[in-house]
Structures are given as structure tokens and as C-alpha cells.
Amino acid sequence: MNKFLVGSAVLLLGAGAPAHAADWDGFYAGINAGYAEGQSGAKTSTVYSGGGYFTATSVPAIATTGAQNLNNGGFTGGAQGGFNAQSGNLVYGAELDIDGLDLRDSKKSTTTYPCCSPSTFTISQSRKTDWLVTARPRLGWLSGDLLFYGTAGLAITKLGYKEKFTDTFGPALETANMDKTRLGWTAGGGLEAPIADQWTVKGEYLFADFGHVSTTSTNLIAYVPAVAYPQNVFTHRVGLEAHIFRVGANYHF
Predict the structure, then answer these.
(1) pTM higher than 0.70 for the full model?
(2) Neighbouring residues of 33: CB distance < 8 A, sequence distance ≥ 6
(3) 1-14: per-residue pLDDT in tens?
(4) Cα–Cα distance between 204 and 149 in angstroms, integer?
């Protein structure tokens, strides 16, 4: 990530600005690419029920094991478009972008049942995203040919989640699956500079927060032949925050 940021700074500050871009009024469109880092807290827990599958000591052990961090980085890139209006050194407008956002991570944790050693249980959780849309006002200030700007607005993605619980006691099996479109918010800033007639390049950072989604499952089964234990309700919760670093190029109409 450090190499990415250094490269972005060199690209912008070393552009040389051969063409003066004093007039930023009007529409523009372009492309972008970069790196995104996703941070998620995933949680799986269940409840004790008399006549259910779990003993009372198993429930807190499952909650502890089911608290996992899903943190990873991946590629982001796509296209953006927007418009600017200029009043002196003040530049303001709005931008819409549509990008791929490849944030996938999974964790697996195994713990010995407090009641029933050496029997163990395993919880696996995964999170993924494939795309990102943002719609953001921009407000900037010109310093010479360089536009320094801040931006904040709406962010949308589809958050995918899968979970699997197994053990060596029954053996037991429980699963969960979510795919939910999430509306969140994003904020950040950047630097944009002219490099040729009607062309600019930019470096940008965005932070995006999509909150949390949750679901429950009652599909726990154990033993052979299978016995269902719907009274042992599982609860699953996952969130997503993303740090996005990208560079881009815009054509100004």
C-alpha cells in the first residue's frame, strides 16, 4: 500500500501540468484503479435450551470462537463521471462512480468443547464484495493548477456472507448464508491536476462504512440418522468498513 501511495504522489506532483486548466466548469468522465482494504467483524453465537444439543458451557465457548476478524485487501477499479462548477479558486460539483471491489476473506477456528474433551467444534465464516457504487458531492480549492478537494456521500455494495458450524461429537452441522445490498456512507479527499488539454489525473482516498447485517438459522442437525435441533437458534452478524486508495484520469468535455 505504501508503494501505491508514493506512486500516486509522483504521478500527480510530477505531471508537470503542460496545459493550464484554469477553467474547471463542465462535465467530465474517466477511469480509476487502485487498492482497497476491507475490515469486518463476524460473529456467530447460539443459545442454550433444555433438551437441545448443547450443554450450558458450550454456548459461551461457541460465542468466543465465533468472534472472528475478516481483514484483507484487494483490487478496485472502474469508471466515474461528474460535473464541476467554478467560482474563482473554489470548485464544487458531484461525482458518480461504478467500480469492481474485490474484498474476500475467510477464517476457520476450532475449539475443544469444555464439557466433552476431546470432542471439538469448528466455525468457518467468510465475507465477500464484488462491486461498489458511490454518489458524492465534491468541494475543492485551486492552488495554481492543482485542485485539492474533499468529498462525502452515499456508498452502495452487496455484502456476501457464509458460515458453517461442524463438530466431532454428534457429528453436528449448521450453516448460514446472506447476500444483502448495503447502503452506507463514504468520505475522503484527493488531489487532481491537469496533464494535457482537457485531461486531468487524480489521486484519491475514500473511507466507506456499510454498517452490519445479521440473520438467524435454526437448521442445526446432529447424529446419524440426523436429529434436528431448531431450539438451538444461531445468530450471525457481519459488518464492513473499507479503506480505498486509487488513482484515475478524467476527460473534461
Answers:
(1) yes
(2) 75, 76, 77, 246, 247, 248
(3) 544 444 444 444 44
(4) 9
